[in-house]
Specification:
This protein is of the alpha+beta class. It is 17% helix and 36% strand. It has seven helices and 25 strands. The longest helix has 19 residues. The radius of gyration is 26 Å and the shape is flat. The N and C termini lie far apart (67 Å).
């Protein structure tokens, strides 16, 4: 990006016995470039690799000042057997600040869903004042941990509104505006317009009243005029009070995932006919944080264990991960043996409370 030369092509030509295309004195450096690596990993869990299917993977269109190198496509699976890198994204600018800004813009226009990634972490890191100032060394992440690993970011209002619009537009698409009126889902009636309510599991409710082909959305003390709402290729676009808003909305694992500016926000919708039959999983379990191979087990049924004591070692993606006891407990049963391949979420150990002394 700063020399205008394709170094990978050079490697292939040299490997084939050809000489270098140009000599050192012919090279000139122009501007600055910054590269990040988009990984299937969870920064909040110590950057543990993540596996799963890339339900959505979209990069912004190519430009002269950006480059995306990737070997996977939407629909591909990231498995435990290979490095979990999804792509390298590189941005060029006449100055370092310009290159960083362009890279943040590129990452903000990137969509990755279906597994955990470091996408939002990269945006936060590049946007940090200390990084922009060049105060970077191997202790950077630990030094700025509290800022880079903040608690769950609150979703912007447009994320919830676009999520509700996806539900409304989905109903229209399912039934059709011009279909049999007995099957139409638009809520048409004589007299006052019918208001539909989109209820979320966290108690928030959006009341959506149709005005022709547009909507008036009431949420708490806010009223938003919605016009030009469209749903295409997993993306919802609309004008909210005259301002364009757009997001990818996906249904993943029983929740709606809204992707805006490189960040994902999950919403659970309340089903008025649903009944929660889950009695609640026991907290006295130790589950595999990712799929992998059990390498070692250090306890047996009946053993008392202390908080933090290693119980098993899991190997995945060229790394070993120690599973430790969550508290002072007693091992009730072991559900995995050395050499066994297990999936993410597998209960490796069940505990029971230690007897009172």
């Amino acid at each position: 990006m700063i020399t205008g030369q394709d170094l990978v092509e050079w490697q292939l030509r040299v490997a084939a016995g050809e000489p270098l295309p140009v000599q050192q004195e012919h090279l000139q450096i122009d501007g600055h470039a910054v590269e990040v690596r988009l990984y299937a990993e969870d920064p909040a869990k110590g950057f543990l690799p993540s596996t799963g299917t890339l339900r959505r993977l979209r990069f912004p269109p190519s430009r002269h000042d950006t480059r995306v190198d990737t070997g996977v496509r939407e629909g591909d699976a990231v498995t435990m057997y290979y490095d979990p890198m999804i792509a390298k994204l590189i941005a060029w600018g006449q100055t370092r600040d310009a290159a960083i800004l362009r890279l943040v813009q590129t990452l903000s226009a990137t969509e990755a869903a279906g597994l955990r990634t470091n996408l939002s972490f990269l945006i936060d890191l590049l946007s940090h004042p200390a990084f922009k100032a060049g105060e970077v060394d191997t202790g950077f992440i630990d030094r700025h941990h509290d800022v880079l690993f903040t608690s769950a970011r609150q979703a912007p209002p447009e994320a919830r509104i676009l999520c509700a619009l996806e539900q409304l537009l989905g109903r229209e698409q399912s039934f059709g505006w011009a279909s049999d009126p007995w099957n139409a889902g638009g809520g048409w009636r004589l007299g006052p317009a019918h208001t539909q309510t989109i209820a979320f599991a966290d108690g928030e409710r959006l009341r959506c009243t149709p005005i022709g082909r547009n909507w008036l959305v009431h949420w708490n003390e806010m009223a938003v005029q919605v016009s030009g709402a469209e749903r295409h290729d997993g993306r919802v676009t609309a004008m909210l009070d005259g301002r364009r808003a757009s997001a990818a909305v996906l249904h993943l694992q029983g929740e709606e995932l809204v992707l805006i500016d490189g960040r994902g926000y999950s919403f659970a919708l309340r089903d008025p006919l649903g009944v929660d039959l889950d009695t609640g999983a026991s907290a006295l379990t130790l589950m595999a944080p990712m799929p992998g191979k059990v390498v070692s087990v250090f306890a047996k049924a009946g053993d008392p264990v202390r908080k933090g004591q290693p119980i098993a070692v899991l190997e995945a993606m060229k790394m070993e991960h120690t599973l430790a006891a969550p508290a002072d407990l007693v091992v009730e049963s072991l559900n995995a043996a050395p050499g066994e391949q297990i999936s993410e979420g597998t209960v490796v150990v069940r505990f029971k409370a230690a007897a009172a002394q």
